[in-house]
């Protein structure tokens, strides 16, 4: 791995309600890349993302041990609210805030975290985030509309814009295209490629091997709470070393 | 007609018929109370809203201003006491569902919902009326607040718990504080929250039993102050309807009509003003 790690996880163990979800996970996510975390359902992919931005703290009866460094800082020792301000997250289901307009959905994170100092700056951030999410042309004339007037795919891109408005260096995506149509999936992927070109580090959980191969530079294979294989996408896709990876790529698990 | 269509038709007709049976009592109340109450108000005119009741020997019934003022005062003050307490308790319970305090608050609220409201009246009578030696508006407000709290608590907690988890996660993922997340949850579920508040308010407006031993009722002044007895519409209706005097029975029906209109107005206005959040 050439680039320095944006995320470095050492000996991470997570138990929820006494049950081990992540077992001694060690991994590195290179800076400025798209890294896919693959694995079948129940392998701990979402839990891993939620440890990185400390959303895991919202669950009762959780034990987390190990080190999770994001750009050099161990997030497990930081205030979770400060951790979350520095990274964006897009969830599996489109979840724009239903009581806010399209504009307010995008601006809310920037407003809360003081990313913008004036209304003009905020307008500029909203515009930038919507352009980056490839949604600007579709909504620029109806920014005051409620989000439910958008299609599911547009709503998901709105959620991407909301996360981008935080101006994060790290973007976490939890199966972002699992519930949207192919056209919106392509737009979303184009958007992520463009963000990578600008130096953003993207960690994407997916259970779609084709998408991981199409989009990512680096793949981490998770199975039953453990990392079974990791490496550049080309290597993993062409010559997977582990049987679990082979079976996953063949769509057997 | 094939059997499937016939079954569908029978089912539809049954559902419509049962729905009509279910809402028929509501329409019966509205029509009958309007039939008995509206002519009284038309007969008395403005005096109905500005005067106190006339003597039973008077040819005209007079008005029920003291009861209207009393109900407004008692409902407002009870809401001022109950709404913040119940809302904060509901927010706490929804945020910390596994806390021991939540279990205690929920159990207390359920018990209060099931306790006859006259018991609440007796409790406040023992705590506030006996020690001071007088019936007061304050005692009435406290009794109504105790009646309101479990209703507001239950509905607001239910509304808070109904916020889909994914919005909460999204809010926290943006770095929002817990207070801000709660604020947005309340906004997302504003219809449910307002519904809870309205049910509490209408409950307080319509209660008679807790006021019998606390506010007691006062028919000779419009408003004597918080440390004097005070009248209220349901109290006045309850007492006047039993008197056997024509004038006062008329006032009771007029009061019932005002109470009914107040309920309908409250529900219609909040329904129009507080829109449901679509998602």
Brief digest:
Chain A has 253 residues and is α/β, with parallel strands linked by helices.
Q: What are the key terms here?
A:
heterodimer; A: 253 residues; alpha/beta; 6-stranded mixed beta sheet; 4-stranded antiparallel beta sheet; 10 helices; B: 279 residues; mainly alpha; MetI-like fold; 12 helices; globular
CATH class call of chain B: Mainly Alpha
* Main sheet properties of chain A: 6 strands, mixed
The Cα radius of gyration of chain A reads: 18 Å
CATH topology of chain B: MetI-like fold
Q: What's the Cα radius of gyration of chain B?
A: 23 Å
Most residues in contact: chain pair: A-B, 26 and 22 residues
Given the C-alpha coordinates, what overall shape of chain A results? globular
Instruction: Report the helical percentage of chain B.
Output: over 70%
Distance between the termini of chain A: 28 Å
Most strands sheet of chain B: none
Total of domains of chain B = 1
| Share of helical residues of chain A | 25-40%
Q: Estimate the mean pLDDT confidence of chain A.
A: 94
Strand content of chain B: under 5%
Number of strands of chain A: 10
Tell me the strand percentage band of chain A. Answer: 25-35%
Quickly count the helices of chain B.
12
Overall mean pLDDT of chain B stands at: 95
Structural class, from helix and strand content of chain B?
mainly alpha
Order of strands side by side in the largest beta sheet of chain A? Answer: 6-7-8-3-9-10
- Amino-to-carboxy terminus distance of chain B: 40 Å
């Amino acid at each position: 791995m050439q680039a320095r790690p944006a995320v470095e996880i050492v000996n991470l163990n997570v138990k929820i309600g006494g049950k081990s979800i992540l077992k001694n996970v060690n991994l590195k996510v290179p800076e400025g890349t798209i890294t896919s975390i693959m694995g079948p359902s129940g392998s701990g992919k979402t839990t891993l993302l939620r440890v990185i931005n400390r959303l895991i703290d919202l669950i009762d009866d959780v034990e987390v041990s190990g080190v999770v460094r994001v750009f050099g800082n161990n997030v497990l020792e930081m205030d979770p609210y400060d951790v979350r301000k520095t990274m964006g997250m897009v969830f599996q289901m489109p979840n724009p805030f239903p009581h806010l307009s399209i504009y307010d959905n995008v601006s809310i994170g920037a407003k809360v975290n003081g990313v913008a100092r004036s209304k003009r700056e905020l307008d500029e951030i909203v515009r930038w985030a919507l352009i980056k999410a490839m949604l600007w042309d579709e909504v620029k004339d109806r920014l005051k509309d409620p989000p439910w007037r958008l299609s599911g795919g547009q709503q998901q891109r709105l959620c991407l814009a909301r996360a981008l408005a935080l101006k994060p260096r790290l973007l976490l995506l939890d199966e972002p295209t699992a519930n949207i149509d192919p056209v919106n999936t392509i737009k979303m992927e184009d958007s992520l490629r463009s963000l990578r070109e600008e130096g953003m580090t993207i960690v994407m959980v997916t259970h779609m091997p084709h998408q991981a191969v199409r989009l990512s530079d680096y793949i981490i294979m998770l199975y039953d709470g453990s990392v079974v294989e990791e490496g550049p996408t080309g290597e993993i896709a062409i010559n997977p070393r582990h049987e679990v990876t082979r079976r996953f790529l063949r769509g057997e698990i | 007609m094939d059997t499937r269509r016939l079954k569908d038709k029978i089912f539809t007709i049954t559902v419509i018929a049962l729905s009509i049976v279910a809402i028929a009592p509501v329409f019966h109340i509205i029509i009958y109370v309007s039939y008995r109450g509206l002519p009284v108000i038309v007969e008395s005119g403005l005096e109905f809203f500005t005067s106190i009741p006339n003597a039973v020997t008077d040819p005209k019934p007079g008005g029920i201003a003291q009861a209207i003022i009393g109900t407004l005062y008692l409902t407002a003050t009870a809401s001022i006491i109950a709404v913040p307490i119940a809302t904060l308790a509901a927010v706490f319970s929804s945020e910390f569902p596994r806390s021991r305090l939540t279990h205690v608050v929920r159990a207390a609220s359920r018990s209060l919902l099931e306790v006859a409201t006259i018991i609440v009246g007796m409790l406040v009578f023992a705590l506030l009326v006996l020690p001071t030696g007088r019936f007061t508006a304050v005692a009435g407000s406290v009794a109504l607040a105790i009646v309101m709290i479990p209703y507001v608590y239950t509905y607001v907690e239910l509304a808070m718990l109904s916020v889909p988890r994914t919005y909460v996660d999204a809010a926290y993922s943006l770095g929002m504080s817990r207070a801000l997340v709660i604020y947005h949850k309340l906004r997302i579920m504003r219809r449910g929250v307002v519904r809870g508040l309205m049910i509490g308010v209408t409950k307080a407006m319509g209660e008679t039993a807790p006021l019998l031993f606390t506010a007691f009722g006062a028919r000779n002044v419009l408003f004597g102050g918080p440390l004097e007895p005070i009248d209220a519409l349901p109290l006045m209706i309850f007492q006047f309807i039993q008197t056997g005097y024509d004038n006062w029975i008329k006032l009771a029906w007029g009061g019932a009509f005002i109470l009914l209109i107040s309920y309908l107005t409250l529900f219609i206005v909040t329904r129009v003003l507080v829109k449901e959040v679509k998602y």
